[in-house]
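Readers of this paper often ask what the protein records in our data store actually look like. Such a record has a labelled line for the sequence and another for the backbone structure tokens. The tokens are whole numbers drawn from a learned vocabulary of local backbone shapes. We quote a single record here, exactly as it is kept in our systems:
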Amino acid sequence: MKTTIIGRKMTVSDSLKELVNKKLRKFDKFFDDTADATVTFSKKRSMEIIEITIIFRGILYRAEEEDTTFNNALDAALDSLERQIRKNKTRLEKRLRAGAFVRSANDIEVEEEGEFRIRTKTFSFKPMNAEEAILQMNLLGHQFFVYRDADTLDTCVVYKRKDGAYGLIMPE
């Protein structure tokens, strides 16, 4: 797995880089050499935040954790990633490395997610700009809002981020 380590407004020490590479090796049983992992370190107030994103065969695996130390946040993020993979193992088996889910003696049993329950909702798209969409999202009390951009007529999504800011997703 190719690993990229990024420090946001900080320098990541060599010992931390070695630790990340060592701990990510446990995912070699799921992914082959074509997987790309990006590990981002940042600090916010007294908390240390780690974000791990793995891209493999068009599927994105992501975990973000914050803790008082990077080591604790790294362990929590890796556990979260492994839980995600194991929870969806039936759906992922065709895409992951062969034999990825062969049970070993120290494996923990994770309840597998059953069928997806999908609730369908339809609504008409009114062309608007991003500010109007954010206002509408806040009025509805939602975390995201899908709308049609008034200028380009593209379908876009605005969403509220954990840090209180807003995000905009739009097609290329």
Notes: The mean pLDDT is 84. Strands lie at 2-7, 36-44, 47-56, 59-67, 127-128, 144-149, 155-160, 166-169. The first strand starts at residue 2 and ends at 7. The first helix runs from residue 14 to 24.
